[in-house]
Write a structure and sequence with these properties.
- The chain contains 14 helices and 13 strands.
- The chain is an alpha/beta fold.
- The strands form three sheets. A seven-stranded mixed β-sheet has the order 2-8-7-6-5-3-4, sandwiched between helices. A four-stranded antiparallel β-sheet has the order 9-10-13-12. It has a two-stranded parallel ribbon with strand order 1-11.
- Bound molecules: pyridoxal-5'-phosphate.
Length: about 350
């Protein structure tokens, strides 16, 4: 059977031979005793890369975000976030369940919120009968908006606004590597404007598991305590940390190939009169497009029959994500399949 081209997500990558070798050869120890040399090396490397005092290896992006929110807040506090953000839509209500937090979502444009939209949501400091606004969070790149990049000038203005109102500023940087490679702005520069950052090793970077959170030493010490309380203290986990370290050392720069592939596919989709795509939002490795004459379900079914796996983005959009395990040939073939499915004669 011919291989399926799987564009459902960049989380689908399998560890490469080099990564598996690094995992096999990893020196390990008990990380709950802080004695796993590979975990320690990963955390030091990541802290340096992100320009923060300290970093912590955690199981997933959700755990990373939720640890950060927990450490920076108290129950009853409020967090301002974008309406399509991962934290608001895809983390199973855990800000409320794990930390007693209330979210205050606001609709951005392509995932980007502006200071003028946020200011009216910040609760007055003396209003004891209101929740306390404690954290402002943004997502870079923005997943549900289609991998869009937060403009640095806006981040800087939001950071100043957060400081002015005594809010912590958290970055869900699950795909910060994609933003950095696309813009040439170092991850360190992005991270410098936030109190806490969470970034994934298991998306475009190709590790099988894991995320990193980073911030001040005090922040990470507290996150270490909460991670253990939540059952996230792991033992000889250097085997997994080795994959993360390998990912950071080998797989960041190649993300540009994923971006080129995404752009190529977007252009082919844009040229098809039966499909609609917002080319402005095609900035990294995620594409969202709309079939004009077929339902989403039927579109996905017909593509699957021909060997191409796609997923549903927002309710009325198809999602395609390029990644490490998709070659230039695969992308050309995917574009041909899409053309075939959405050609006039089939619609
Ligand atoms: C922006 C963003 N944040 C957080 C996460 C959560 O990551 P994980 O699936 O590792 O929990 C994802 C996952 O897709 C994401 O896209």
């Amino acid at each position: 059977m011919e291989k399926m081209i799987d564009l459902r997500s960049d989380t689908l990558t399998k560890p490469s031979e080099g990564m598996r070798k690094a995992m096999y050869e990893a020196e390990v120890g008990d990380d709950v005793f802080k004695e796993d040399p590979t975990v320690n090396a990963l955390e030091e490397f990541a802290a340096e890369l992100l320009g923060k005092e300290a970093a912590l290896f955690v199981t997933s992006g959700v755990m990373g975000n939720q640890l950060c929110l927990n450490v920076l807040s108290s129950p009853g506090d409020e967090v301002i976030c974008e309406k399509d953000s991962h934290i608001f839509n895809y983390e199973s209500g855990s800000p409320a369940a794990l930390s007693g937090l209330q979210l205050s979502p606001i609709e951005g444009v392509n995932g980007v919120i502006l200071p003028g939209q946020i200011e009216p949501l910040i609760r007055p400091a003396n209003a004891y009968y209101m929740p306390r606004t404690k954290i402002l969070t943004i997502e870079n790149t923005h997943n549900r908006a289609g991998g869009t990049i937060q403009p640095l000038e806006n981040i800087i203005t939001l950071s100043a606004l957060a400081k002015q109102h005594n809010l912590f500023f958290h970055l869900d940087g699950a795909r910060i590597w994609n933003a950095s490679v696309a813009t040439g702005i170092p991850v360190k520069e992005y991270a410098s404007h936030f109190d806490s950052v969470s970034c994934c090793l298991s998306k475009g970077l190709g590790a099988p598991v894991g995320s990193i959170i980073a911030g001040s030493k005090d922040f990470i010490n507290e996150a270490y305590r909460v991670r253990k309380a939540w059952g996230g203290g792991m033992r000889q986990v250097g085997i997994l940390a080795a994959a993360g370290l390998y990912a950071l050392q080998h797989n960041i720069h190649r993300l540009k190939e994923d971006h080129v592939n995404a752009k190529y596919l977007a252009e082919r989709i844009n040229a098809n009169p039966n499909l609609e795509i917002n080319m402005e939002a095609v900035q990294t490795n995620i594409l969202l497009f709309k079939p004009l004459k077929l339902s989403i379900e039927e579109s996905i079914r017909r593509c699957k029959e021909r060997g191409l796996l796609l997923s549903v983005g927002k309710i009325d959009l198809i999602r395609a994500v390029t990644h490490l395990d998709v070659s230039v040939e695969d992308i050309r073939k995917a574009a041909d399949i899409i053309d075939d499915v959405f050609n006039e004669q089939y619609v």
